[in-house]
Structure to design on (166 residues):
């Protein structure tokens, strides 16, 4: 979940192929990826209304959600709306992927975006100090799934999702 143009679709497209070398092939490369813990199913929701409708019919089946926030823009009002919708639907587990970190001039900028996102999540009722946060970019992996540079952050994301978080 996340604002438009923050990299959700790029990430969702890159994960299955990039993680295949690390964890094995996905049973369904369209919408699934595999980690050491097992398969994950992705729902790349193209907008807030689609996300809300998916939550309405299956929030109880979600193990958690991944909030994608662009390091260029930070959390936008749309980002907050996604977090609020997830909280209202009872989604307890949330992780954050700060995307497009290769496009900011200094690492500190991405870290500030992370802090701003944690504050926004705290305001929405999530335990911000327990929310796992990854900083990376998926475009290299989307272009070339065998790229070690692009794959590194996605493997870290998969390993983080495999750990219990609240």
């Amino acid at each position: 979940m996340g604002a438009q143009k923050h990299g959700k679709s790029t990430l969702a497209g890159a994960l299955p192929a990039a993680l295949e070398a690390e964890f094995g092939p996905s049973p369904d490369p369209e919408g699934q990826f595999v980690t050491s813990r097992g398969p994950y199913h992705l729902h790349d929701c193209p907008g807030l209304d689609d996300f809300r409708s998916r939550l309405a019919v299956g929030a109880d089946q979600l193990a958690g959600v991944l909030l994608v926030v662009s390091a260029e823009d930070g959390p936008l009002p749309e980002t907050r709306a996604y977090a609020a919708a997830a909280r209202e639907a009872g989604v307890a587990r949330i992780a954050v992927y700060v995307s497009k970190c290769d496009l900011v001039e200094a690492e500190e900028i991405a870290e500030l975006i992370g802090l701003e996102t944690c504050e926004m999540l705290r305001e929405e009722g999530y335990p911000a100090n327990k929310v796992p946060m990854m900083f990376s970019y998926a475009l290299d992996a989307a272009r070339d799934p065998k790229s070690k540079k692009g794959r590194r952050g996605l493997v870290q994301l998969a390993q983080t999702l495999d750990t219990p978080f609240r």
Summary: The CA atoms of residues 5 and 149 lie 22 Å apart.
